[in-house]
Amino acid sequence: MSLTNKHTFLKATTNPALPNGSVDVRMIAAIRCILAFSGLVIIYVDPTQPAIFSALTYSSLAIYGLWSCVLAIIAFRRDPAAPPPRDTHWGDVLFCAYLVTLTQGTNSLFFTFFLFAILSASFSRGIQEGLLVTGASVILFILASLWFEPDAKFGFDQSLVRPIYLLTLGYMISYWGGHEIAQRRRMGIMQEVSNQLNQRLGYDHAIRVNLERLLNFYDAKACILVLKRPTNPPNYRSYYISHYQPNKTSADNAVDKQLSKSDSINPNAIDDDISKILLNLPENLSTRFEQSPAWWKKFLPKAPQPAADSPLGEELNQLANLLDTPCLLTVPYQQHDGSSGRIYLIPDKHQFTQSDVEFITQLLKSISHVVENIQLMDELVSSSAKHERFRISLDIHDTTIQPYIGLKLGLDALNRQAGTDNPLRSEINELLSMTEATISDLRRYVTTLREDQVLTRDSLVSSIQEQADHFKRFYGIDVKVKCDTEIHLSTRLACAVLQIFSEGLSNILRHTQTKRAYIAVNCVNQNLQLEIANEVSDTGNSKTDFIPGSINARALSLGGASFVKNDSNGYTVVHVSIPL
Fold it and tell me: SS3 of 384, please?
């Protein structure tokens, strides 16, 4: 994907990763073996328990024990942190119901084996799986009891209390297991957010990476951060991360157009009218909102939201319509430097709770601390670099520019002494022009270095074109420039690109005899691709087993890489890839 495309979207998560379970798969396998063989021992010691189907019960428990041993051997070869396969606890449920059917129905001692399957499912795959296993266990237990004693009289303690006991205890286990997994996942993303990112990429990159983490954590549809910078006048920016492209209806929306024009490097600038709409909520408001919630959700204490007929509810309803979503979650974002904003998280299938609102509030505080640390580090580096640039600019002026000026004066004097009829006059004039051009380049470089001038996209392209014209004028090398017209680079990266091209052209001049070359800049899959190529007369003898040292070192310092190859058009091409 090129930077020419203004819409940047993340790939949708088709198979979201399973949550990190709170149990060890090896421990589960070991306990299953213990339960199977202990049940076999118990019915062997007390043969009255199997009742009618004693031989079938013995053989079934023996098979279950062997199956448990096989699962244990497989488990000890797997990653202990990975959740056990889903079919194992469902197999436990079915086998437990089968044993209950063989062993006196409601009086079966294997009734408690259902709890093992519920524990395994809940603490390895969360509350939803635990509730499914609980419901299946209750239904199978009731059916097994009815099948075993169809003509028996109704026993309150056995036929009613045990299913209720299994249902309530299973629900509590499922809730605790899901809560444990949720807390582990939250601790994981908090740790990821707190990890220091590459300082070179800046705080905008840190914000985008953490918003992407938040989006993937909830498997949401879109995550939007609208930010107000404390400048005069205020500067409004938006960060838009999404799994999906906006549909035609939302694309016609002015708000959606502003937010979805996402640049892969820098945040979007949005106009004042749209920013006022998105930042008009109370400064400290953290809430979730659903346009048409189910009637029973109104009675849940952990899922409150503003009433639809209240002024705040009407405003949230308007925002939901503008963002083209039936529900959303919004939390404020604050930094100590005065920057403030608001995040909007649009769900796909997951419905937010008040616990999610509180967690995202805490998570945004951690993100703001990380961003502030990167900003502080960037300021310290910039301040130190400013003094260093000033010192280097003085050294270059005294040790390099002044000798070149002396050389220019000497050539000028030699040109006058040679006279108009001297055959060397044209060569002297050419040397004089080259010296003047070098002095001009050095002075421009010193000025840029001392004043830290911003190298915009236009000035980058013009600087690259000037270098190409310089090589054609003085050395007869025809250098074509192929540059993506919609590329947007930071100042530091643009300067690095200019230095890489300068070094590449210099290598072509010093190490080849070519008269044709080209340099190209484009962006593919959020990687900046640079090409420096020279034409070779004999492609069979062209060497590609070398790596240009200075270019490769600069690419590595930017987190990229370089390699050399021959293309089908007879050019030796140095490829440089730099991640954006």
Answer: helix
Q: Is there a contact between 91 and 135 (Cβ–Cβ < 8 Å)? A: no
Domain boundary pick from 379, 411, 437: 379
Examine residue 267 and state whether it is found in any structural domain, yes or no.
yes
The SS3 call for residue 534 is strand
Structure-model confidence comparison of residues 253 and 497, the more confident one: 497
On whether residue 386 sits in a domain, the answer given is: no
pTM: 0.62
Which residues lie below 8 Å from residue 83, measured CB to CB, with a gap of 6+?
18, 19, 21, 25, 124, 125
138 and 216 fall within a common domain: no
- CA distances (Å), origin 73, targets 30, 87, 113, 121, 254: 10, 16, 21, 20, 60
Using alpha carbons, list the distances in angstroms from residue 152 to 17, 22, 97, 216: 48, 42, 19, 54
Residue 445 lies inside a defined structural domain of this protein: no
Q: Could you tell me if 48 and 153 lie in one domain?
A: yes
Bin 126: left if φ > 0, else alpha if -120 < ψ < 50, else beta.
left
For 63-144, strand residue ranges (E) read none
Of the pLDDT bands very low, low, confident and very high (cuts 50, 70, 90), residue 104 is low
Give me the residues paired with residue 553 across strands: none
SS3 state at 388: helix
How many domains are there within the chain?
Answer: 3
Q: Are residues 211 and 107 in the same domain?
A: no
The SS3 assignment for 469 reads helix
Regarding whether 152 and 113 lie in a shared domain, the answer is yes
pLDDT tens digits along 9-58: 333 333 334 445 556 778 888 888 888 888 778 777 765 555 555 677 77
Is the distance from CB of 380 to CB of 364 less than 8 angstroms? no
Same domain, 233 and 345: yes
The answer on 370 and 498 residing in a single domain is: no
- Rg of the chain over Cα atoms, rounded to whole angstroms, equals 35
Q: How far is CA 539 from CA 407, 435, 480, 509, in A?
A: 41, 35, 20, 18
Measured torsion, CA atoms of residues 527, 533, 539, 542, in degrees rounded to the nearest 10: -90
Polymer length in residues for the chain: 580
pLDDT at 163 over 70: yes
Closest CA to 30 of 90, 120, 97: 120
Query: First CA to last CA across the chain, in angstroms?
Result: 12
Half-sphere exposure of 60 (CA within 13 A, CB side): 20
**Residue 543: what pLDDT?**
63
Q: Are 131 and 95 in contact (CB under 8 A)?
A: no
Residue-wise burial string across 255-276, b where 16 or more C-beta atoms lie within 10 A, e elsewhere: bbebbbebbbbbbbebeeebbe
Rounded CA separation 283/338 (Å): 13
**Tens digits of residue pLDDT in 122-146:** 888 888 888 999 999 888 888 877 7
Q: Pairing between strand 287-290 and 268-269? A: unpaired
The parent domain of residue 59 ranges over: 25-191
